[in-house]
Design brief:
The complex is a heterodimer. Chain A is built from nine helices and eleven strands. By secondary structure, chain A is an alpha+beta fold. Chain A folds into two domains: 194 residues, Bira Bifunctional Protein, Domain 2 (BirA Bifunctional Protein, domain 2, 2-Layer Sandwich); 92 residues, Class II aaRS and biotin synthetases, domain 2 (Methane Monooxygenase Hydroxylase, Chain G, domain 1, Up-down Bundle). By secondary structure, chain B is an alpha+beta fold. In chain B, the strands form six sheets. In chain B, strands 1, 2, 3, 9, 10, 11 and 12 form a seven-stranded mixed β-sheet that branches. Chain B has a three-stranded antiparallel β-sheet with strand order 4-6-5, covered by helices on one side. A three-stranded antiparallel β-sheet of chain B has the order 15-17-16. Chain B starts with a strand and ends with a helix. Classes of the chains: A alpha+beta, B alpha+beta.
């Protein structure tokens, strides 16, 4: 199924990427989305992204909820006029005969306070099951976007369970004779135990501060750089540290270590970093364009 | 001529269609009216993918207009006259000499030919469309592009089947519409006359009423729910209802939970079974023409099963800790940044409910009321807060009175909704809302205009409704905590309740409230009495007399504590008669059982009062007599204004003025 989707979008001009190799909460946070949607340059990409949401872990007990699930993320910037028809075509491509099913687009807007990003869109419902999140980004890193991209995010476990007609994602047949449970159950159990029980809170806070410090140091350094240094400045590395902070925040949150009053403050700290990187990235792209 | 405008759009959120159509209908009406293209008959329709306006009776051109233009005076030098003619673009010979009433001047009639309606529409429609008010719009395809609720993908704009040419964000208007996403053609030409038929041939039912009927035609007896029905009507272009089943074992879960899962999460109607319980069935509405292989029913059944499993998982997990063990956890749940946690709120509400006269059960309910905020089920289904708490309390062996009070304490959820069914529930509900009001006002979070993020108006109206309909004798002013702004706000909600919800006339409400507003049950009884007695012959004339008295006293700057009535100064005849009447009427007044009978008795004063005003002069020269007469009139007012201040009543004769 993944291969078919990749082929489908590849044929429609998307650069097919491999997953980003760090912990993220959603495919949106990968630099391939977060940074590429900024600025006036058109871009199309599709990639699978394992997405980790510590608070969603259920020790492998819940048939539909996972600590780590797979998303297939498509970015079309700018959005083609027939984007929805193209999306419907992708469902046909993986073997869903839409003529025999019921499909609805229901309002669902998206906002990520930690990324300073928001957009409007829908959840796509197939026979009552949410299979895709469709978003027209409007802002990212607090910046208005030059070209409005469409982000299509397929929930791969759900879609596969639907296609295979099973009730639980754990019953998905991964390859003949091997189920999703065989492959993933242990991860789900152990990470649930870690995130809810075993994670050492003071250590996580320390790590959070270390990554926050390094990201902040790089961002400040960039601001003081000379133009030529700016063009080659490692903003991507700074962004990696922002992502680390975001994941640590999610783990601390799942661990119950962040009180409601603290929560807003910590989200604000991460957003500040994300916004700084986004702003720096836009100026750097301009600079690279000028010096090239 | 007939106008057809169809804005083809990607799926518009269901609840936004009404506002958009209302605006478009009115805006097209205004446009055609101000441009004098005739009175247009306008009809609006929408589905999720299109906003349609049809207008009949337009004319092809704006009528020509004429306007007289005045130039220089007759005596003006020739070059000035020539200059005027040149500026107006006509020959000097064609100018007329006329008087404008003051002087003779050169003038002429300027004729402006009317523009073609098509041209006017082509110019105005793009802006008119883009100004459609939506709660949250998006920009596309990028900076400098257009803003609308979702991208516009096609526009049909026809005037008697001629295309009205314009462009919005790269989309050119034309005569091609689009059908149902799966069942219809992507593009096909339409005319004004065949528009609906062509849509139907492409599996789009334009009429919302007809879509509604298609849904209602399902043979399964689902529980009617107008909100949900309207959502589904707006989500679909070719609605086809289907009936699915679920395992009866899920009926062990509370009906409230099952119904919420079905309605809120899946947009399904639930189905009533025997003895008032749910049947293990649901009705879903698809946006297609059938389900021949049963795949859609099967898919929906599977999703619902997973949802019910979630709910059961949360229910079981929540039972591991009792509500009473969760009170301390409320310290971690913020009520409002400036007002602290729900634990602090809970402590305040417990004190308040005791002040209100609540018993030990009420205190217990107040203590546990918010604990369900820490449960998984409420985190998943926030709309069930309170209800879940009540159900858990029952499951955990709390007394029924406590459980019911928790279950009910967010009531009334609307002005039409029920109030809590028990006294304990009513007191907890009042205490909870009262605390929110007092807290928010104390930190300056006071609603202004349409901004009321904490729904304080609803909270205040809820208190009014509970007190009045629960017939609770509570001293509301003291409970509000002597906060002048809150008192004024609350009084406003009291007026709103009696006027808008109960339908009393505004002057009746003003009159009754002017005679006291602390006991709302009394206000209700007095209002009902005033409403009953008002149509009787003597009431309004008496009210007019009271107003007259009130004006006389005000003009005389009368101070009541100056003197007592001097009986010897009363003239025999109407003045003494009035005094006798006052004494007589007031004597038996207190013993009368109802406000209505009291008012009827007061109304018998009318002949004496009228006669007094006919025959007796108040403003006489003798200051002692004048003062005595004012004192007499003041007595009438104070003695008989405890039910209502009649001078607030707007009488028919006043309205006619």
């Amino acid at each position: 199924m993944i291969l078919r989707l990749k082929q489908y979008w590849g044929e429609r001009g998307c650069i097919i990427q491999e997953p980003f190799d760090m912990e993220v909460g959603a495919g949106t946070m990968c630099p391939e989305t977060f940074l590429r949607v900024l600025g006036p340059k058109p871009y199309r990409t599709a990639y699978v992204q394992p997405s980790r949401r510590p608070a969603d872990g259920r020790y492998g007990d819940n048939p539909n909820r996972l600590y780590k699930h797979m998303q297939l993320q498509v970015i079309l910037k700018p959005t083609p006029a027939d984007v929805i028809e193209q999306y419907m075509g992708s469902l046909e491509a993986i073997g869903i005969d839409l003529r025999k099913h019921d499909i609805k687009l229901e309002e669902d807007n998206w906002e990520s306070p930690t990324l300073g990003a928001w957009g409007v869109g829908w959840q796509v419902m197939l026979d009552g099951l949410e299979i895709t999140q469709f978003t027209y980004f409007q802002q990212c890193g607090g910046l208005d976007l030059d070209l409005i991209p469409a982000e299509i995010t397929y929930g791969l476990e759900r879609l596969t369970a639907f296609l295979q007609g099973v009730d639980s994602v754990y019953d998905i047949e991964w390859t003949p004779g091997v189920t999703y449970r065989d492959v993933r159950y242990t991860d789900e159990l152990q990470y649930s135990v870690y995130n809810f029980e075993a994670a050492h809170v003071p250590t996580l806070w320390k790590l959070f501060e270390i990554h926050e410090g390094e990201a902040r140091r790089l961002i400040d350094l960039y601001a003081e750089s000379k133009p030529l240094e700016m063009a080659r400045f490692p903003l991507l590395a700074a962004y990696d540290h922002v992502l680390k902070c975001s994941n640590l925040f999610n783990t601390l949150d799942a661990r119950g270590a962040i009180s409601v009053t603290e929560r807003v403050g910590v989200i604000g700290r991460v957003r500040k970093l994300a916004v700084s990187v986004a702003e720096a990235w836009v100026t750097q792209r301009l600079m690279v364009g000028l010096t090239a | 001529m007939n106008l057809l405008l169809e804005i083809g759009c990607e799926e518009i959120p269901d609840w936004m269609l009404y506002g958009a159509l209302e605006y478009l209908g009115a805006a097209i009406g205004d446009l055609t009216k101000t441009l004098r293209t005739g009175e247009a008959k306008i009809r609006t329709d929408a589905t999720a993918r299109r906003l349609v306006v049809r207008a009949e009776g337009l004319i092809a051109r704006q009528p020509d207009s004429e306007e007289r233009v005045w130039g220089p005076a007759r005596s003006a030098p020739a070059p000035a006259i020539a200059g005027f003619a040149k500026k107006q673009g006509i020959d000097v010979e064609k100018l007329e000499i006329l008087s404008d009433g003051k002087a003779e001047k050169y003038s002429y009639i300027r004729k402006t030919p009317g523009r073609a309606t098509t041209e006017i529409l082509a110019e105005a429609l793009p802006q008119l469309i883009l100004k459609t008010p939506f709660p949250k719009t998006m920009l596309w395809p990028g900076k400098g592009g257009a803003r609308f609720i979702r991208p516009i993908r096609w526009v049909v704009a026809l005037l008697d089947n001629q295309i009205i040419p314009f462009e919005i964000a790269d989309v050119k208007s034309g005569n091609e519409s689009s059908g149902h996403r799966k069942l219809g053609a992507n593009r096909f030409p339409v005319t004004y006359e065949n528009f609906e038929a062509q849509l139907r041939a492409n599996f789009v039912i334009l009429s919302a009423e007809e879509r509604k009927r298609r849904i209602e035609a399902v043979p399964t007896k689902y529980k009617p729910d107008d909100d949900l029905l309207n959502v589904l009507v707006n989500l679909t272009e070719w609605p086809t209802p289907i009936t699915g089943n679920f395992d009866p074992s899920y009926l062990d879960l509370p009906g409230e939970v099952l119904t919420t899962v079905m309605k809120v999460h899946q947009k399904y109607f639930s189905v009533a079974g025997s003895n008032g319980k749910l049947a293990p069935q649901f009705v879903a509405v698809t946006n297609t023409d059938g389900d021949p292989d049963g795949l859609i029913v099967h898919g929906n059944e599977r999703v619902l099963r997973a949802r019910f499993n979630d709910a059961r998982f949360f229910w079981d997990a929540d039972q591991k800790r009792k509500l009473s063990d969760r009170v301390a956890d409320l310290a971690n749940v913020t009520f409002q940044a400036k007002l602290g946690s729900y634990l602090e709120k809970t402590e305040r509400v417990v004190v308040l409910v005791k002040e209100l006269g609540g018993n030990a059960h009420a205190e217990r309910a107040a203590l546990l009321a918010k604990t369900d905020l820490t449960t998984e089920l409420v985190k998943e289904f926030t709309e069930l807060q309170g209800i879940i708490g009540g159900l858990y309390a029952t499951a955990q062996g709390e007394p029924e009175e406590v459980a019911t009070a928790i279950y009910d304490h967010y009531k009334p959820v609307s002005m039409e909704g029920d109030i809590p069914g028990t006294l304990t529930g009513q007191l907890v509900a009042i205490a909870d809302k009262l605390d929110t009001l007092r807290g928010c006002f104390s930190v300056g979070m006071i609603p202004t205009g349409s901004k009321d993020p904490f729904a304080l108006r609803r909270a205040a109206q809820g208190i009014v409704k509970i007190i009045v309909e629960g017939k609770l004798r509570l001293p509301i002013r003291r409970l509000l905590g002597s906060d002048a702004a809150l008192e004024e706000f609350f009084l406003d909600r009291v007026r709103y309740y009696f006027r808008e919800i109960r339908g009393f006339k505004y002057d009746e409400v003003n009159a009754v409230l002017a005679a006291g507003s602390d006991d709302l049950v009394g206000v209700d009884e007095r209002l009902t009495a005033v409403q009953q007695v008002r149509p009787t012959a003597d009431f309004e004339p008496l009210a007019a007399a009271f107003k007259r008295i009130s004006n006389i006293l005000r003009q005389a700057a009368f101070s009541s504590d100056s003197v007592a009535l001097e009986l010897t100064l009363l003239d025999a005849g109407p003045e003494a008669d009035l005094h006798k009447q006052i004494v007589d009427v007031s004597a038996g007044l207190r013993d009368l059982p109802t406000y209505t009978s009291k008012l009827e008795r007061i109304a018998t004063l009318r002949p004496a009062v009228d006669l007094f005003f006919d025959k007796v002069m108040v403003n006489v020269d003798n200051p002692a007599v004048r003062q005595n007469r004012l004192t007499l009139l003041h007595g009438v007012l104070t003695e008989f204004s405890t039910i209502a201040d009649f001078s607030e009543i707007v009488t028919t004769s006043q309205e006619n003025k």
